[in-house]
Amino acid sequence: MDKNARPPIKRTLIISIGIGLLIAFGYIPLQFITEKFLRQLISISPWEEITSTAILGIIYFGLLIYLFVMLVLGFFARRILNYLVEELRCRELLPVKYKMHGKKDFGNSYKDIITLFNSFVNSFLEVKKDKDKYSKTIGTFLDPNVKKEIDQRGIHEMYIGGKKIIATVFFSDLRGFTAMTEYYDPDKVIRILNDYLSMSTKIIDKNGGRVNKYIGDAVMAVFEAPSKYRDFMDSDKAILAALDIQSQFQILMRKWKEEIDPNLALGLGIGLARGEIVAGNIGSQERMEHTVIGDTVNFASRLCGKAADGQVLISEDIYKIVQNFVEVDNLAPVEVKGKTGSYNVYSVTNRKMIIG
After folding, report:
1. pLDDT tens profile 208-230
2. Phi-psi region for residue 304, left (φ > 0), alpha (ψ -120 to 50) or beta?
3. Average pLDDT, stretch 304-333?
4. Is 162 left (phi over 0), alpha (psi -120 to 50) or beta?
5. Rounded to 5 degrees, what are φ and ψ at 214?
6. What is the pTM of this model?
7. What is the residue range of 22's domain?
8. What are 283's strand-pairing partners?
9. Do 249 and 124 share a structural domain?
10. For the CA atoms of 204, 210, 214, 215, what is the dihedral angle to 10 degrees?
């Protein structure tokens, strides 16, 4: 037989002896029992005996390593877990009464890791649930564009300030509402107010505006001018919304008279003005509000105050932009509180149909 093909018995024997020294005396009886059993069961050659000894040695040595690792991991895992739990308790991310297993072996440490992981998952699901609930709730109080801007900012990115924009400002106000509150039950007053505010908000949203705030029984909205429609679209949309609101208000009046009081006397006036306004966060670091301010806002409010029941008053700036699209009644120049001189205003009666 070729010399190079002969099995490396000497090297295998040396490896077996080295492994035997590593596995210590505790496994010698088991080794003898195994070898005796194998000799009785089958006839093995010296080479097979040496090989089996080496394999058994490797297995025993692996068991020693496994036990050693289990002890070390159990010790360090317990210390790490104790630190994590203590920190999470201090930060109120875990209940104060949260307890780990008493035994300090790796098996119990593993159980604690699983329990801790489950606590994280449950906490994450609770936080997500609260976030979804908060997002849905806050969406009913804020304009969608404002909410979107807040969601995109970090917690430390809130700031006081704003920017100048061109927009049409919308104001509507109920006539006779304050007097009505003295004679009707609060439930009926709230129902009338909510019906009116809900109707107005839906129409404003449908026409591309956004409600900035409710001021008692008044609605303040902004129709910002998109760049490609900057010549007229925001004013035209605001007028369409105003006319629709006046029409729907008459439908609500008929319903209220049928269901609440046939003698109910309410009216609605609307004022629109267009120009430069400042939009942004106003207030303090503790309490702020996203709103719009400026001369245009004040002018729209004054026009709303002068509008009679059923009227939609627009400023001359708006009329110059939309005069080809609307039918108006020319009114006498009016004086506006806080401004000098007289101003031309127009009462919109209809929006013309545009063909082609």
Report:
1. 898 988 998 999 999 987 766 55
2. alpha
3. 91
4. beta
5. -105, 130
6. 0.60
7. 1-141
8. 288
9. no
10. -100
